[in-house]
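User: Design a sequence. Structure:
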């Protein structure tokens, strides 16, 4: 579509705000697959000729909600550098956007591009911002104004930034610090910038400003690598006083590697992430990516060290969804290493993290394998096997595969202990699921003799159980059985009602009680007010899971042994 055709369509749709937004959205979608892209040129020309007032349209939008509004704002940002408008009017407009749609659009970047077009705009912007009574609203655009200075006027930009650092408003100071690290300057001027950053770091008390000093120092190092030794020495003392803001900046930079940081500096920064607070959700989310990147780069030991540190700080392993998904689906060897290491430590927090890690995995049975390099004696081998039973009891295949991997290289004495653990409590509790698993091992030719012995013992056990159950003296009276199931169903219904009170399902669906029949009746309301009766046949579905039998036959003994397995420690570990 030609530029004139685009302008004609925009003018036709300009009768109403809704119509114009819809037309801009349609043209934007068309341009995505078109060779000629002239939407921003058309809008800027219409604005400059005063046929359409883009700035007024933005200011008139009171609620930025919906795809069309954000498409329009995206197009407006791209057209902004082409507009013939005063800096003041643009700032009024962009502060409105920033307040209404914060976090969605890079309005500060758009303003920087606008200021770069004419040499007077950066200083006009700074002067206008500093004159405003509501300084905190306009101050976030200061760094954009500073960074828009042309290369031949960068000395002026440095001087203005130096003056802003002395301001009482922390947002103003923060913007000045942030701009310092990104200015394109000569080597001589770089020395001046570094002096400004490092000298003011010791006097700055605001945590947000200190975080921006850190960010600026790292960006400065990315531009001028010769300063990395000085930056590393500076960081050694600067990050001793950590805060949530500094931790977040470190997590953001190290997670997404926006700067090429030397390994020693990167290691120093990542070690600080161990101080993260569980409430600092954004930082915890970024640490997800840090952990994955460390593993991808071959620094798995460093990743595990960081992981253990943040877990000890109170972060839940369930908060690290990206990393745990990578661990469960792509890093089986590292998963085995971590589980073996944590079980061997005997620490409740780490063992509990293993349980939580595997608790919600429902799409497949995860087979584990112990890392035998860590289990160099019989005591450790039996110890981690017991830990696997205690903490992963509800995942029988994971437990069985883990113990079988230890059995493969264990001594004859340890063989007997591990075989007994596989039989009681595991096989006796899960005779269905584990029987199939052991049979699959036999079919694969893996530990055939052991699996056959276990299955034979299970058959004998079931035969004996059947003989006992046939004794009339042990059969409960029918009225007791009915009373039991009646109470059980009543308790289950009460638990269901209690659990569903806070369910989001009730917010999006209507609860109906079916008294009889096998179909549901509902009505569809037409636009003319009529109701159309519809009938929907109910479909059956089912889900089954194997409950541990020992939890019914001997619950006290089972609970006791699982608690022992979870809490026991190796003597050397206790003494240390």
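Assistant: Done.
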């Amino acid at each position: 579509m030609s530029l004139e055709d685009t302008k004609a369509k925009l003018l036709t749709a300009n009768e109403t705000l809704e119509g114009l937004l819809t037309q801009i959205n349609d043209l934007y979608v068309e341009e995505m697959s078109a060779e000629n892209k002239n939407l921003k040129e058309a809008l800027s020309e219409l604005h400059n000729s005063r046929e359409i007032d883009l700035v007024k349209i933005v200011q008139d939008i009171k609620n930025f909600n919906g795809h069309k509004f954000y498409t329009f704002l995206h197009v407006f940002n791209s057209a902004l550098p082409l507009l013939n408008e005063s800096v003041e009017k643009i700032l009024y407009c962009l502060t409105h956007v920033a307040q209404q749609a914060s976090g969605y659009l890079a309005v500060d970047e758009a303003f920087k591009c606008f200021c770069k077009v004419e040499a007077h705009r950066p200083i006009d912007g700074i002067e206008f911002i500093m004159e405003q009574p509501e300084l905190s609203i306009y101050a976030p655009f200061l760094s954009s104004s500073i960074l828009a200075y042309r290369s031949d006027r960068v000395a002026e930009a440095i001087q203005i930034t130096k003056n802003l650092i002395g301001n009482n408003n922390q947002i103003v100071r923060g913007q000045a610090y942030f701009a310092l690290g990104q200015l394109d300057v000569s080597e001589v001027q770089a020395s001046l910038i570094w002096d400004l950053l490092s000298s003011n770091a010791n006097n700055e008390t605001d945590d947000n400003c200190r975080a921006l000093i850190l960010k600026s120092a790292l960006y400065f190092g990315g531009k001028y690598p010769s300063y990395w030794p000085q930056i590393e020495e500076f960081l050694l003392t600067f990050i001793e006083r950590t805060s949530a803001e500094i931790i977040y900046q470190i997590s953001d930079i190290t997670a997404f590697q926006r700067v090429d940081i030397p390994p020693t500096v990167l290691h120093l920064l990542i070690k600080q992430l161990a101080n993260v607070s569980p409430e600092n959700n954004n930082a915890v989310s970024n640490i997800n990516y840090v952990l994955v990147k460390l593993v991808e780069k071959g620094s798995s030991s460093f990743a595990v060290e960081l992981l253990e540190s943040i877990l000890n700080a109170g972060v839940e392993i369930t908060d690290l969804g990206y990393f745990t998904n990578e661990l469960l689906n792509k890093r089986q060897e590292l998963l085995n290493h971590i589980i073996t290491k944590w079980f061997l430590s005997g620490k409740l927090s780490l063992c509990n993290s293993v349980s939580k890690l595997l608790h919600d995995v429902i799409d497949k049975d995860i087979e584990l394998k112990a890392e035998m390099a860590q289990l160099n004696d019989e005591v450790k081998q039996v110890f981690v096997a017991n830990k696997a039973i205690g903490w992963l009891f509800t995942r029988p295949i994971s437990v069985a595969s883990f113990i079988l991997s230890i059995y493969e290289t264990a001594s004859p004495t340890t063989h007997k202990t591990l075989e007994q653990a596989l039989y009681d409590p595991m096989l006796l509790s899960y005779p269905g699921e584990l029987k199939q698993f052991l049979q699959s091992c036999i079919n694969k030719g893996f530990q055939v003799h052991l699996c056959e012995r276990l299955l034979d013992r299970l058959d004998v056990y079931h035969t004996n159980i059947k003989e006992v159950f046939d004794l009339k003296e042990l059969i409960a009276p029918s009225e007791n059985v009915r009373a039991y199931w009646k109470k059980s169903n009543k308790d289950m219904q009460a638990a269901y009602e209690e659990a569903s009170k806070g369910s989001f399902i009730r917010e999006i669906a209507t609860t109906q009680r079916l008294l009889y029949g096998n179909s549901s009746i509902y009505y569809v309301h037409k636009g003319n007010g009529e109701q159309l009766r519809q009938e929907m046949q109910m479909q059956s579905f089912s889900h089954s899971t194997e409950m541990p039998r020992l939890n019914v036959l001997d619950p006290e003994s089972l609970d006791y042994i699982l608690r022992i397995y979870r809490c026991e420690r190796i003597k050397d570990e206790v003494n240390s």
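The chain has a mean pLDDT of 88. Residues 478-500 form the longest helix (23 residues).
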